[in-house]
Amino acid sequence: MNLALWIAAGLLAAVALAGGVSKTFVPKERLAAFHGGGWTGDVGVAFVKTLGVLELLAALGLILPAVLGVAPVLVPVTAACWVVLMVGAMITHGRRGEFGFVMLNLAYLALAAFVAWGRFGPESFIG
User: Fold this and answer.
1) Where are the transmembrane segments (predicted)?
2) Where exactly are the structural domains of the chain?
3) With CB atoms counted within 10 Å of each terminal CB, which end of the chain scores lower, N or C?
4) Whole-model pTM?
């Protein structure tokens, strides 16, 4: 199960890194033109950039604490925060009728919930 948790955390970290880089460094107007990025037209630039920075922090928080052995409890805390972020993403895409993205966000939510459950519980880094 430890391996499955590492794989899930790694996948989520890759998703968070990609989303964080795009939201932080790609202009909002370009993001709005991408499939699934139309929601950015409904919010301010600061909101999009803030989400991007949070996603970059999530990418780090899902991996580095455990790898470095510094505050490894941050891994399941980050995963739990990712669950909350995905609920917001599902609501946003659902309101726009983008149900394919709702399902994708649900898959990310499930992975994050698995990591949070596993790292808070049976495969905790805190022994």
Assistant:
1) 56-87, 99-120
2) 2-120
3) C
4) 0.93
